[in-house]
Amino acid sequence: MKQLDNVPTHLSRTFTGTYRLTGRVVEFDNAKTPFLKLRLSDCAGDQIAMLNLSTTTVPERIGHLDFVTASGVKCLSGQFILDEFRRASRDEVTSMDTLQSLPRVYSPMPEVFDKLVATVQSLRSDCLRVFLTRVLERKDRLEAFLNAPASANYHHAYPGGLLKHSLEVANHSVAMLRLNEPTMPRLMQEACFVGGLLHDIGKTYTYDSKGKPNAAWKLCSHDVFTLEACAYGLTYLDAHEPDIAMTLRHLWTCASPGARYGQPAAMTLARYIRDADGQSAMADNQQRAFRLQTNKGFGRLGQNLFWQPQLSAAASH
């Protein structure tokens, strides 16, 4: 490692920001000066920064995925040399944009991740944005949401499958809503998106941070964890948009596939989410059934049988 101290300021530019701490290791430069190499992450990507341990005291009890605020300079070499590194204040954390703190580095499907962040940040409802922050930016859940499959052996059964399936259901639900009920208020459209996005959020309890099934996967059905996963956010909505909070509870506990509560659907949003869920799952399974088969006709995936008709050359273009 090259020597990093005494960097001329005219060869650098300033740097400051609030991030999640996702990595750190001690390194030494040519003069044997110890530096703490840090990876600072957010939804846009990573910053690699160096902290001189001989001149700067590292705050105690800052752990993996904690919020930190760092500032310093960026050298021509591309490395950041920090002159400040500390735990972020509450105001600094709350001033971040919705989902800004999700580490893009942890997503195995970065293109889908980017679509999620862009769509959520376009929501007009401040209450729903705060709600999603309280549900998805939890340190103990966010890695599972980004890494878990949507199922172990069925649809979207690959790392990042839960994220991809969740976003498909959310977007398809809203598309059906706008087609059938174009005058539906914007807030209800956004509630439909959120309901679809989080319809499988209970699976973050049944997979670990690396997307591997855990004990809860064998012991409990994922749907029993949905309200638990959203409890902190629902408490906020109860105080600011109580009917939207009740709407989301209804969507997740009535007619959606897998729901064990048996409550009949009392609004069309529940049907849209149910249908979008089934469509997303079947489309992924059908693609997998034919991924190794070039001929048309029947394909099988587990117990599911799929059929693709043989089309004329003109019709297939």
UniProtKB/TrEMBL annotation:
The keyword Hydrolase applies. It holds the Pfam family TraI_2. SUPFAM superfamilies: HD-domain/PDEase-like. Residues 158-291 form the HD/PDEase domain. CDD domains: HDc. One of its GO terms (molecular function) is hydrolase activity. It comes from the Bacteria. InterPro entries: HD/PDEase_dom, HDIG_dom, Unchr_helicase_relaxase_TraI. Signal peptide: none annotated. Keywords: Hydrolase. This is Phosphohydrolase.
